Amino acid sequence: MSDGDLVLSGGGSFMVETDAVFAQMQLMRRVQGEAYDWQVRLARIRELQTSPAPQWVHGTVGASVMRATGSAEEIEVGSGDLADRLERAADAYGLVERGLANAGRILGEEIGWRLGAVLGQLPAVQALLLWAAVIVASGTVVQGIGSLVNGQPAFTTAAERPTPPSTTADPTLQLDPRLLTSTAFVAALRIVMSSLDDVQAGTLRMPLSLSRFLGEGGVGIRGTTSAAKEAVVAGRSVGLFTNGPVAVTRRGAAVSVRAPATLEEVAQRIPKAVARHPQVRIERYGDPEHPAWGVYVPGTVEWSPITASEPWDITSNLDAVAGGAPASAHAVTQAMRQVGINPGDPVVFAGHSQGGAVVQILAADGEFNTKAVVTFGAPEGNVPVPEGVSEVAVEHTNDLVPALTGVGGTGGAESVGDRLIVRREAFHDQAIPTDDVLPAHSMSAYADTARAMDRSPESRLTDFATLLTATLGGGVGSVTTWRGERLVPSPAGRAR
Amino acid sequence: MHPLVDVLGAAPNPVPGLRHQRALLEALRDDVQTAWRSLAAADVTDTWHGRAQQGYVDRLEYLRREAHTLVRVLDDALREVTVAIDRANAGLS
């Protein structure tokens, strides 16, 4: 498999396969069905023969029809056999991937639980020192992994970085984007994030078997969702991650826009996450009686744990992962209501990063008539896919943001229900940019992957692209942009 | 009873049946040619290079040849049914 291939999974299936393999399998199945149909039609043609079979000698229609029937049968058997083999190969590939993910999760659970058990027996100061040692050791291991994957030192000083050229010899140690953008690092991060609840279980002296039973590999009561909930509760007890109501306002007048024709165009329309800029883009198409809507939502704007007026912040991230109601989702809902989207109007959602989590939540909420959802680099939540909604989640294997929610129930694919996951390694055939902290998470990198999806012959992708464009229509519509603000209590105790 | 046999016992006219046969053969030939084109367009040589994948490419090539053979056989059948129609028309006139 080429590193640049699209890898698809999901739909409750155990299969994980490249789009090229799956496209071949679909072709073989189609040819198999057609070859069967040809034999039925040849039998009908044979029935029209006026001469009896013994007279079907070479050079007669009857003889040619008999030869054609044999050939069609050969094609049916041959194409069916190839389709079966491709299916088994894809199945085996999926099982290997799932096996590796599960092995990593189980190992992470064991290490995390034992670490927690040790921490639970130590006085607080020693426990903190041990934590620090573990973090340093982990950093060294990760550095080694990064060196192996990238063939370069994982940590460099600013003066050592080749691009952009440094004008000052700043000796400050910086994390190299090439480390954060390595598939091995992201895979390790998934395991670490999945193990946090096991560290806690070990500290609380909960038996490992019980921790596993309650965790992501078991009934799923504990895991990244419960860890996020606990982080929110703990943070709010000390004044962090506080939430509040939001208000939205339209920015500027409606302007004319042509409906997107490709997934790449959809990706490019997601607003950039920039402070004080509008966070919601809403496009309206169709006639006044039958409007259709496209709603585009960006990623996190503000990374401070101290809640401020920006709803696209880390508090909303935690609320989304914890299964709560993020302020950013409230803001999008308000904008959709204010622009006049009725409950029956068809809606297409697109979101990047936190925006992806938000649009999944809104689709599951059911207030609007969601037809299709596409997310880019969104945290893998456990938000269910509603009946009648097509969802595609695009993830780069070297983007750490989707990995922040851990390994998932059984390797990531099955836990997402009917959501189709499209995975690809960003920058697989080019140098990783060093002027961006998380280049594989950037929307421009995801737009490249959307372009690859547009080129793919895989039917699930072509069907999804057709659904998107058919829902929005091919005509000209209008676009409005909206900005949401959280109403933060002022020092006098009143919302401002 | 064969559908072309005259219910009155007279010698059946084979031409309508042969024409129907030709129409069915033409439609089938076109469909098989479309499938052959799909198989011919399925180029995986840039994607796969392993030994197992080469085996797949070989099997795919075999299917392409078989589909092409089928198109030729159906072409033969079409020629033969056309000749049969001409003969039947000549015999009737």
Walk me through the structure.
- The complex is a heterodimer of chains A (496) and B (93).
- Chain A is of the alpha/beta class.
- Chain A contains 14 helices and twelve strands.
- Chain A has a ten-stranded mixed sheet. Chain A has a two-stranded antiparallel ribbon with strand order 3-4.
- In chain A, helix 11 links the parallel strand 8 and strand 9.
- In chain A, helix 9 packs across helix 11.
- Chain A starts with 6 loop residues before the first strand and ends in a 10-residue tail after the last strand.
- In chain A, 45% of the residues are buried.
- Chain B is an all-alpha fold.
- In chain B, 74% of the residues lie in helices and 0% in strands.
- Chain B has two helices and no strands.
- The two termini of chain B are 26 Å apart.
- Classes of the chains: A alpha/beta (496), B mainly alpha (93).
- Chains A and B meet through helix 1 and helix 2 of A and helix 1 and helix 2 of B.
**Number of discrete helical segments of chain B:** 2
SSE string of chain B, helices as H and strands as E:
HH
Strand order of the largest sheet of chain A: 2-1-11-10-9-8-7-6-12-5
Instruction: Calculate Rg of chain B over CA atoms.
Output: 21 Å
- Given as residue ranges, the uncertain stretches of chain A (5+ residues, pLDDT < 50) are 10-17, 138-173, 409-417, 492-496
Strand content of chain B: under 5%
Query: Whole-number radius of gyration of chain A?
Result: 27 Å
Unreliable segments of 5+ consecutive residues of chain B? 1-8
Give the % helix of chain B: over 70%
Distance between the termini of chain A: 55 Å
- Report the sheet with the most strands of chain B, covering strand number, pairing sense and barrel closure: none
Mean pLDDT of chain B: 82
Biggest interface goes to:
A-B, 36 and 38 residues
Number of E strands of chain B: 0
Shape of chain B: rod-shaped
Number of helices of chain A: 14
Secondary-structure class of chain A: alpha/beta
Structural class category of chain B: mainly alpha
Average pLDDT of chain A: 77
Helix percentage range of chain A: 40-55%
**H/E series of chain A, N to C?**
EEHHHEEHHHHEHEEHHEHEEHEHHE
